[in-house]
Design goal:
159 residues; mainly alpha
Length: 159
């Protein structure tokens, strides 16, 4: 029994080394929004420190990352992706076996939208739609904070 326990303990201690030996080079994306910077940093740390991977971080955003995966299978990992910005391309890649969903970064899911304070919406109900904001720039200080470049929402306010 004691030999079995010692053997099991030695095998358990050897598992991280075995994982490290198999990892090799991995390319992962870092998108241009805050949550992805964190997710990529954590993923890079875990892969390097836990599995001995040689991680290359590739600056990207949604459309170039998905296009690159579709055309040449790189990068190896897209660390966070808002599927509403990919159209049917991601679903097709998934059906073809070129990509696989491994987990949800934002559970139960993120919310995309533009926000104004409730007191402003109460005082100016016309600001509760994007067209109302665009028609009344003076009510929001002639400022509009949009999303990062590369997000599908950009076209909603720039076209």
């Amino acid at each position: 029994m004691r030999k079995t326990l010692i053997s099991a303990a030695l095998c358990a201690l050897a598992l991280p080394a075995l994982a490290q030996a198999d990892c090799g080079e991995v390319s992962i994306t870092e998108m241009n929004w805050a949550s992805n910077t964190i997710v990529t940093g954590v993923a890079k740390f875990l892969m390097e420190e836990g599995y001995g991977c040689d991680v290359t971080v590739v600056p990207s955003d949604t459309v170039p990352a998905v296009t690159s995966v579709a055309e040449n299978g790189e990068p190896d990992i897209i660390t966070e992706l808002w599927l509403n910005s990919t159209g049917e391309v991601y679903n097709r890649l998934e059906e073809e076996g070129k990509v696989e969903r491994l987990g949800k970064v934002l559970t139960p899911g993120g919310v995309e939208g533009w926000w104004i304070p409730s007191y402003l919406a109460d005082a100016h109900p016309e600001l509760t739609s994007i067209s109302g904001i665009m028609e009344n720039p003076e009510l929001v200080g002639a400022r509009f904070n949009n999303c990062p470049d590369g997000w599908a929402a950009v076209s909603s306010v720039t076209t």
